[in-house]
Task: structure prediction
Amino acid sequence: MGTRRGGNQAFTLVELIAAMAILVILTAIALPLARNGIIRWREVQLHEDLRVLRSAIDRYKADCDQSKIPMRPDSFGYPPDLKTLVEGVKARGKVYKYLRRIPVDPMTGSSDWGLRSMQDDADSKGWGGQNVFNVYSKSQATALDGTNYGDW
Result:
């Protein structure tokens, strides 16, 4: 018959319960941190996408002001829509493009951005359709800092 060396090698019920309790506590701490990390990453992405869109609008406006591309009457030199920034404008045998693609809003998962024209009120959530002066997220959610994503 074999003899036992080192005694009983099984875990006791108390040890298993203690290990499970520690695991539950660590999970309860890690989940909110991971969730906030994902939200923070999306917020950084939103800031970057808004910067890219607004920069493209500004470059379009600068080209209109310098007469590189034709300006529509009543447009104040701003693009008629975001699609124009991607497709570009033909002028003087050249095509002036400002965006490769319209970015997807990380908060809504859509490339449908809120638009404001020069003629709209500053706090308007409706687009008059005349031109694109500014863009904003259509998300109704609140950011980690307490502001609304739509106000960025």
Q: What stands out?
A: The helical segments are 13-65, 82-87. The longest strand covers residues 89-91.
